[in-house]
Design goal:
Blueprint: H1 3-27, H2 30-57
Helix pairs in contact: 1-2
Protein name: CsbD family protein
C-alpha cells in the first residue's frame, strides 16, 4: 500500500476516534470516550510512522 494511502487511512481512523470521543461526552459514557481517545492516539502514531517512512524513502 502507498504511503499516502497509509496517511489518509490514519487520518480517517483519527476522525472516527474523535467521533467516538464526542459521542462518549454527549452520552456521558466514559468507556466510549476513552475508546475514542485511545483510537486517536493510535492513529496519530500510525500517521507519524507513515510520514517518517515516506520521508525516509524520499517522497
Amino acid at each position: 500500500m502507498g504511503k499516502s494511502t497509509d496517511i489518509a487511512r490514519a487520518k480517517a481512523r483519527r476522525l472516527r476516534g474523535m467521533i467516538k470521543e464526542s459521542d462518549g461526552i454527549a452520552l456521558e459514557n466514559e468507556r466510549l470516550k476513552a475508546e475514542g481517545r485511545r483510537e486517536q492516539a493510535e492513529a496519530r502514531r500510525e500517521e507519524a510512522l507513515a510520514r517518517a517512512s515516506r520521508a525516509a524513502s524520499g517522497h
